[in-house]
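The protein record reproduced below.
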Amino acid sequence: MSDTDMTPAEQNLADDRMRAEIAKLLAETMNLRTQKIWYPVFVAGTLLAGGAGALALILRLTGAI
């Protein structure tokens, strides 16, 4: 169905759906940008904590602490 075959009410509904889809995509994009920024921080923190825990375990098992 082309735009010329639509009634004004159908065109308004299609426009509203398009605006809602654009708003949804913008919100998802913002969420992905936020995750892109914070994900490396969480990974680095996890690796640092794991390394510190492993080092403490090794030192405790060797009797150094």
Observations:
- DSSP finds one helix and no strands in the chain.
